[in-house]
Design goal:
Elements (H helix, E strand, L loop, with lengths): L19 E2 L11 E2 L2 H14 L25 H18 L3 E11 L4 E10 L5 E9 L1
Antiparallel strand pairs: 1-2, 3-4, 4-5
């Protein structure tokens, strides 16, 4: 009988050592330490989704470029363009992340765009979801 073994990142074996920082930066100490790679991956994906292209100096292609679409009308073409941008960027910058669901919603009259993003980490099997609301 075959067993499906779960891989554990080496960084997760030492729970007292921080892996990164959480978003947003609003704690009393400014930075809140993250101690697991699952949490840090989630914050890295949020950072990717909220970053526009050419916003990072030495990595100008990093980012989903979502904010550029906030003031456009939300049509099928806009949603298809956003979907393609996000899927391409995630596969490029997060190769171990498999997008299980990516849906868009919102209120066009109020320039509100909501993104539901569900994913699974291929090497660990862990899954999570992210909801982002952008208001123009």
């Amino acid at each position: 009988m075959a067993y499906n073994l779960k891989q554990i990142n080496v960084l997760d074996l030492r729970p007292s050592i921080g892996v990164g920082v959480a978003l947003p930066f609003n704690t009393p100490a400014v930075f809140q330490t993250v101690y697991t790679t699952k949490e840090q991956l989630k914050y890295n994906i949020i950072n990717f989704l909220l970053t526009d292209k050419r916003e990072r100096i030495f990595n100008p292609n990093f980012g989903a470029n979502i904010r550029s679409k906030v003031f456009e009308q939300i049509t099928a073409d806009t949603v298809d363009s956003l979907d393609a941008q996000i899927r391409t960027g995630v596969s490029q910058y997060f190769p171990n992340v498999v997008i299980t669901e990516l849906t868009f919603g919102g209120k066009p009259d109020q320039n509100l765009l909501t993104i539901q993003f569900s994913y699974t980490v291929s090497n660990t099997g862990e899954s999570d979801n992210i909801t982002i609301s952008l208001n123009g």
